[in-house]
Amino acid sequence: MRAVIQRVKKAKVESNGKITGEIGNGYFILLGVGENDAPEDGLWLSNKINNLRVFDDSDGKMNLSLTDIEGECLVISQFTLHAKTKKGNRPSFIKAAKPQLANELYESFCHNLETLTGKPVQKGSFGNHMEIESVADGPVTIIIDTKNKE
Fold this sequence. Notes:
Elements lengths: L1 E14 L2 E6 L2 E7 L6 H13 L3 E2 L5 E3 L1 H4 L2 E6 L21 H19 L4 E2 L7 E15 L5
Parallel strand pairs: 3-6, 6-7
Antiparallel strand pairs: 1-2, 1-3, 1-8, 4-5
Helix pairs in contact: 1-3
């Protein structure tokens, strides 16, 4: 799994003219599920994200986690994070998981985050066109790939 985590002041996603998810202070996460990913990847990644200390403490240092600030999460499934661009100019998405597996692991990841944070995770509309608005805080953007844990 690959995740792009952005610290935000607020974010929202719309699909077909309807808001499907909206948050205040917290994380806007793009999640790419690969063909070789498993539930264990989602569990590891959700724990890592929840425990990241990238929110400012009273001294202005990045020292607080999502749980510490009682932050929220908006998670969007993003198969294009597995784009291969070595050859030519048209990306290949062959390494992205098929929709059924991707949706199962996406939902499992979101459930794990809900359990860890004690808050509902806001989501996009899986497999559909979406419009996303976010207000980055910092900006702070972190990329994590479960295949590169070390």
